[in-house]
Predict the 3D structure of the following.
Amino acid sequence: MANPVIMPRQGQSVEACIITAWHKKVGDAVRQGDLLFSYETDKSAFDEKSPVSGTLLAILAGEGDVVPCLDTVCVIGEAGEDISALTGKAAPAEAKEEAPAAPAAQPQPASPAKPAPREGDILRISPRAKALALKTGVDMTRVVPTGPHGRIIQRDIDAALDSGYHGTVADVEAYLAGGYKGSRAVAVSQGTALEAVEQQAETVYVAGGTEFSLYEEVPMTGVRKAISRSMCASLTEMAQLTLHTSFDATSIMEYRKQLKENAQLLGLPKITLNDMVLYAVSRTLLDHPYINANLVGETFRLFRHANIGLAVDTDRGLLVPTLFGADSMTLSQIAAASKEAAGRARSGRLTPDEMSGGSFTVTNLGSLGIESFTPVINPPQTAILGVCTITNRLRADGTVYPAMGLSLTFDHRAVDGAPAAKFLADLCSMLENFNLLLAK
């Protein structure tokens, strides 16, 4: 019996997924649990395994296709089985694979074209090509017209530039005016261009350097597109403002040193400075409801718990898993939960539901030496905290202390400057007195 394999729904908010790779082809024998295809939502990437054993009879969506959730992606059954009822009007994948690809249209070799007319001839050039030539300073003696009746068009200027035929704007102006007397332009390699410029008083162009113009086009992934949409919406729809401050990190650094020395004895997980910041943030947020909030339209969602988004840098882009109820966790639990969430993010095992429902986000660039930055709010949240690196500063009495920078971006539609500054002040106070905070 033929079995359809559908596109799973990864979270209530996901309507469609993009197939990124097929690991089987039509006609392959498939065992239950074999990897069939990989796909991604706008937030994460997943692998789909075969629910049954059999033969892959049809593939109904190719790599790069957007497939609505719960739609049939492929069919597995017995060889020769009638699957028309499952494929509908979709063409069987084997037909697609067996049909020879239509040969790409090969550009016909153009008949030898003469260079652009020289001095005294009638110069035919389109307005767009003329403007481009004057803008770029192309060597007009190297431009070959391919337009009607020997007319120079924009693609001819582009072709000359791509071949490295550069001149001066003055020569282009003279050429277009009909008074061009010729140029002692020389073809040089990239490495000897400077020497040639010093030796020649007139035009120098670089030829034979096509390898320098090579590039690779890489399409945006679904995750990158989602980040792009979210960040653009954040910056265009919010009135964002950032406050910068720092606190004396002596207390948390001393406490972390004690933890490292006794972690194995006490059976504690590795606890980082960022874990301590998360702990302090979770305790501070509940006293600042409009910072621990979402703004949806003209309605505030004031959360009863601190659901903190943890910004994680991955190969697929920035992902933000949520630590739900962080205010009810111990420091050890926050450390364990943050490492688990970061690991799931980097391995592509997060579900969209695990990246939603956040009331506030913390992002840390301190390990990269960043002393201050402007984090962008994760909509529909009203604020985000950036954690910066530790620098040495002087006290009034001349002693040196380690200062950790904090950058708070907030939505001025939801929070005014004074309440935002009060939140930062309260957070700094908790971090500077971390041992007392743990006693609460």
Remarks:
- The CA atoms of residues 284 and 426 lie 7 Å apart.
